[in-house]
Amino acid sequence: LTHIGAKFMFVSGMFVSGCATILFGMLDKVPNGPMFIGLCFLVRAMDAVGFAAAMTASFSILAKAFPNNIATVLGSLEIFTGLGLVLGPPLGGFLYQSFGYEVPFITLGCIVLVLVPLNMCMLPKYDSIPSKDSFWKLILLPKVLLLCFIIFSLSACLGFLDPTMSLFILKKFKLPAGYVGLVFLGLALSYSLSSPLLGLLSDKLPYLRKWLLVSGGLMTALCFFMLGPAPVLHIESQLWLFVLVLVLIGFSLGMSAIPVFPEILHCAYENGFEEGLSLLGLVSGLFSAMWSLGAFAGPTLGGFLNEKLGFEWAAAIQGGWALLSGLATGIFYITEATRRSSSSSLQNPDGSSEERTHLMGSET
Asked: Which residues span the membrane (predicted)?
C-alpha cells in the first residue's frame, strides 16, 4: 500500500471487483462441467482480491483523513453497510425475476465501475514513507492477537447466519420466501443505526472501548444461545422472539466491531509503531484478513453443525466464539489494569519517601 498508494489501490480494487462482477453474470453462457466450475472459482477469486484491496485502502484513507474520529467515521459508514444489506436482496431478487440471471450482476458491476472515475477525481492522494515496522511484529503483540480473535469471532457469527437462518425461518415459521428478507431487517437496521452512536462514544470516551468489547462479546454469545433458542432452555421458538434476538445481535455486533480498529491502532502506538499510512495499511490489512477468515469459517462450520445438530444447537455452539472472545478480553483488561496499578503503587512509595526526605532536609 505504501509503494503504490492508498488511492491507487482503492480505485484499482474497485475496477477489478466491478469487472469480475460483470464477468460472473455472464458465466451462464459457459458450458457445464469442469470449465464452468473452474471459471466460477477464478472469477470469484479475482473479485475477492479486488474487494480486499479496496477495503484495505478505504480503511487506511479514512483513518488518515480523520485520525481523531476513526470510530465515529467507521460507525457512520456502517449505515450504508446496513442499507446495502437491506436493499440488496430485494433489488437483486426483483432484477433476477424480471430480467434474468445476468442483469443483477451486470447492473451492480456497472455501478461499481461508474464510481471508479468519481473516486479518482474526489479522493485525496496521501504520500507515505515506507516503515520498518513489520506485519508480524504487529500481529504478535498479545493485545492485537486478542483483538484479531474478536474480529474473527464476530465475522464467524455473522457468516453463520447466511446459509442457515433462511432455511430455519422457512422450516420453523412456515413463512413465504418473500418474507424471509424482512426478518433480516432486524439485524441490519439495528446494526446500522447503532453504529454511529457507538463510534461517537468510542471516540469521545476511549476508556469505554474495553468495556464495549467485553460486553459486546458476551451479549452476542447470549443472543446466539437464545436465537434457536438452545434446546437446553426448553423455550419454544417464536417469530417475535427470533426477530428481537436478531435486533439485539445487530446492536451487540456493533458494540464489538466498531471499537476494534481504533483499539488496534492505539495498541500499535503504545508499542512504538510509527504513525503514518504504512501503519494504517498494516492495521487495515490485518482487520480485513481476520474478517475474511471468520467469514469463511463461520458458514463452513455453521453449515456442518446445522446439518448434524440442527439450527438451535448450531447457533448456540457458534455463539461460543463470541463467548470466548468476551471472556478472554475481560480477563486481559482486568490483568492489565491490575499490573498497571501494582507497578504504579511500587513507584509511588519511592517518590513519597524521596519527597519526605527532601522536606526533612529543608526543615533542618
From this structure: 7-27, 33-63, 70-91, 103-123, 144-170, 176-199, 211-233, 239-265, 277-301, 313-334
